């Protein structure tokens, strides 16, 4: 199930930067300024929304999970370590989802 795959990704050793919302005190430009992320999302928020039944289906969950990776690359740039981590987690999540 999508929830199982999300849990597996969240437990991955590279997932820690994506678990919680970005701290606006540490990174104010994440939320405001020319390179701000317009639709911030994180894996714990996705899990909570999934548990509350807020998603219409797996495609909606995938759209939010994809948003996590896209936001990371937008804010950090394509070559940043966090973006490399996002690429790996995205590949793993999509591979699991495609196996459904």
Automatic annotation (TrEMBL):
Q: Where is the Bromo domain?
A: 10-83
What is the name attached to this protein's record? Bromo domain-containing protein
Query: One GO biological process from the UniProt record?
Result: single fertilization
What are the alphabetically sorted keywords of the record? Bromodomain
Q: Which domain of life is it from?
A: Eukaryota
Q: Give any Gene Ontology cellular component.
A: CERF complex
Q: Does the keyword Plastid apply?
A: no
